[in-house]
Here is the input.
Amino acid sequence: MLGPYDRHARVVREVHRVTLVSRDGGLKLIGEAAPVAEVRERIEKILRRARAGDEPDEASMMRLLSATTEGAEPEGADAAARLEKTGPRIHEVRPRTLGQGRYLEAIRSHSVTIAIGPAGTGKTFLAVAMAVEALRRGEFRRLVLARPAVEAGERLGFLPGDLQAKVHPYLRPLYDALNDLLDPAAARRYVDNDVIEICPLAYMRGRTLNGAFIILDEAQNTTPKQMQMFLTRMGERGKIVVTGDVTQIDLPDHAPSGLVDARRRLAGIEGVAIVELDKSDIVRHPLVSRIVEAYEDEPSQQ
Here is the structure.
């Protein structure tokens, strides 16, 4: 009833302000009288179904526990979309260049989209924006953001803290993109309820993600084997977006880039779109475009 890693309990606490506590083989509900009564009714309904041999699956459990009484969503609506039902809306995002327009259309119409382009072209930001909006519409159950933990020419040494603290600096750009799109409290709520997961690429091994929108950022720093592993994580009703800049490869010992390899292998495969952005698609400070051009004219020395 509490769900894997207490996921269901967190949803109940967030949506209904009721805390579920497991005690002596039973559940204790803590909160105000009205929401406690409503949650108890929902739990009893789930138990009746289970005892009758119709044990709800994960999606049904989330739907039964998270739906609110007022303005309830239709049967089959996804829990992820409901978590922000009354919250602040996502900032409106529109393409600002022709290349960005092609990129967004590719994401809408393909199961796998690979976007390659220089810094400032909005590769990651637009992918996260599309994913969050798709979550709100109930098209996907969750969003998974992954990034390889590769140092950009520096040796950071032994970082302090637990494993999460050690990998956090590598994932910071993904948190920044999320916070640019959502109110920080809403972004935390998504993450706390496992609707949005931000993780190192290594955490993806062995998983199959059904109904998930999956984004791989900084893909130029994957090896071909890592890229193969990532692309095969997609499950049913899933979508993948891969972003990277082939001019900023930080792999050690000149190892081959999985992004370059994927561009070659997957070109022309049905269901896969490869979008190339260039300096005309840069939407950061105008100086960024001139900096990119300067480094293109005279490649930097190692």
In short: The mean pLDDT is 78. Residues 33-51 form the longest helix (19 residues). Residues 127 and 241 are 7 Å apart (CA to CA).
